Structures are given as structure tokens and as C-alpha cells.
Amino acid sequence: MNRLGFEIKKGDIKLIEKIFSSKFLVSLLLFPFFKSEAFNCIPCLAEITNVILAIECLMLFFINICSKNKSKFFIMMILFSFWNYIISPLLGGHTSESIYYLLESLGMISFIDIALKVNYKKSISGISSIFTFMVILNFLTLVLFPNGLIPMSKNGNVYLFGLRTGFSLVIIPSFLFNFIDDNINNNDKFSLKTVICLILGLYSLISEWVVTGIIEVFITLILYILFVLRKDKKLNKYIRIIFISIMIINFSMTLIGDSFSIVSFIANLLNKDITLSGRTYIWECAVNKLNQNPLLGYGLESTVNIYGILKPAHNHWLHIGLMSGYIGMIILIISFYFSCLKLKSQSMSKNNNLICVFIISILIGCITEIQLYFPFIYMIFELPYLLEYIDESDEVDQ
């Protein structure tokens, strides 16, 4: 049942409902959001995908704006976009980052909003299917092209999901949506699709030794066993405290660096040097640069100069700060916090614990990697606002 409170018709056909009642069309709509540098391997594919993505995102955003019950996360993301792309560049005199990321973020939230409100079963099935398909394709590129689809680019080998550090940005969400699909279908065991996604996704992370992704998987596994399998609601109860604790650890690590004891512990655990492969020095440089323009940031110039080489901040929140200053960072942190509060209020949902687990692992991943190169993080943090539609649909189905 369409819960948007908005519909587009052509004759007697309800177009929105028609589209999101097809698993194939849902998968097709999500495909452009997987665009990476690897799309440049096929002539004109990147350009065509950009055009399709722009049109699709504008249409999805328009539909979502016209619909009812817009989430706080969506509203906060609009506020962040207004600050990041208009106010901050205007006052700071700098160039904002590509409009591509603006379209992706608002389009991604709009997509999941519309999809789950219109037809949650077909949409989750289509979403999990395209994620699994892309994980399989990425695995095949690793096997067939061990040096990457674009070997030795300026930042490293490029695979289907871009640089190896970007693998977790797709693989972790692929696990979540397959788990949700299994829950919706009341599968006591993982489906074949989920098993394939898990095996190939884990292989991809381990074979390229994506440390942040491996840590996220390890945390997910532990929390899944402790809370999801045991149906223990304590995780949900303390999600707000967990969020605040992770943020405290995050900023303690980035502001204090390798003198913070937990950094030494993590470095020893992962057999890394005390700087976590140079991250602590990058964080120090990023903080110093940010403090020179703390309110407005630097827009497109959101990198730091490390011995003559421009490097990203290797921390999600520092990257946001360099882009749009502490004001933009605070807006985004508040929006993520609102999602955790909403998740806490949805304690009776059968998918609540599951989403808690993945949100925690992603927040921890934010400490060492930027999570914005694919927009799926926005889809995940919008999910707490959509659990009520899934649960209501379950009651109707029964």
C-alpha cells in the first residue's frame, strides 16, 4: 500500500506504485548509485550514468518533498546541503564540492523513503538483489583483473568499487539488506543469496586486506551473535550512549593522535605501526588546517598536504569539517544522532537490533575512513524512520 500521500498517474496507472512494485525496476533505479571511477573503463558509461543519476535523483527528491511524513534525517540533510553548497561557499569564498554528491545524498534518502513506503517487500528484495549482483561482479574483477580494472592509478589500483578502501562502503550495506530481506521472508537460516554475498564480500575484503572493512565485519559479527541471535534489546536501549561514546573515541583519536592509549592498542592488535599507516599524522594536519578556518571549511579543497602529496583526511568527520567547517560537521553529527534516537524508539521492530548492529559498525568505520564515496550510508541512517512502515505492513499481511 502506498503511504506516500502522493501519486503520479497516467490514465488509470499509478506510476510510482507500478515502478516500486517491481524488483527489477527497483534494482535498476539503484544501479547508478554504484558508479565509481571504474565506470570510466567503458567509453561514455560514466557520462551516461551521471546524466541518468542526475535526472533520477531530481525526480526522487521531488516526489519525496511532495510526500508526507518526511524524516528529521532528511530535513537535516537538506539543511546540511544548504549550508555546504550555498552558505559556506558564499561566505568563505571557496568552491563547494561537486554537485554530484549533493544529488546522490538527497536522491539516496528519497529512494529508500519512497521504496519502503510504497512496497517494502519488493523493494528490499530488489535492493538486496542488486547489492549481491554488484558484490559478485566486484569479486569477478578481483579474480580476472588482480591488478585492477585501472592498474596503478594515482591513488592505487581501481576495481569495480573503486579503490580497495571503498569496498566496505558497498559490501557492509549488502550484508545488511540481505539480512533484512531474510527477516522479512521469515527465513530462520540465511538464504542462498545472502550466503553468496557474505562469502564473496568477505573474500574481497580479506584478499585486498581492507582493514576498516574487516574491523566492521568483526564488530558486526560479535554484536550479531550477542544481540541479534539472542534477541537481546539492550543494544537498542543504549544506542544513544553508544553513539556518544564512539564520537568521544573518534575525536580523542583524531585530536590527541598516537598519544591516545587506544591508538596503541589498535595498532598492536592489527600489527600496524603506531601512526595507523600514517593516519595520526594526517589527522593532525587536518585538524591544524581546519582550525585555520573553523566555521566555513574549504569546500573542494578538503585535502591536506602530506610531504607534497594531497591526502584525504581518512576520518569521516574531519573530512566533513574540512569541507564545510565545524558548523557543517555539527549539523551532520546531529542528523546521525537523530537517526539513533529514532532507532531507540522503534524497539519492538524485528529489524531494530540488526540495524543497530550495522549503524554501530559503520560509525566505528568512520574513525579511519571517509564513508561518502558511495551514498549508501545515507540509506542506512534513514532506515530507522522506515521501520514503522515495514512493521505496519507485516501486521496488514498477517
pLDDT averaged over residues: 89
Determine Rg (CA atoms, Å): 21 Å
Order of helical and strand elements? EEHHHHHEEHHHHHHHEEHHHH
Query: What is the count of helical runs?
Result: 16
> What is the global morphology?
globular
Q: Could you say which structural class the secondary elements and strand pairing correspond to?
A: mainly alpha
Task: Please bin the fraction of helical residues.
Answer: 55-70%
Give a verbal description of the structure.
It is built from 16 helices and 6 strands. It is mostly helical and 398 residues long. The chain has helices at residues 15-19, 23-30, 45-66, 72-92, 99-144, 168-184, 192-207, 211-228, 234-237, 239-256, 261-269, 279-292, 316-345, 352-365, 376-382, 387-397; strands at 9-10, 13-14, 150-153, 156-158, 304-306, 309-311. The strands form 3 sheets. Strands 1-2 form a two-stranded antiparallel ribbon. Strands 3-4 form a two-stranded antiparallel sheet.
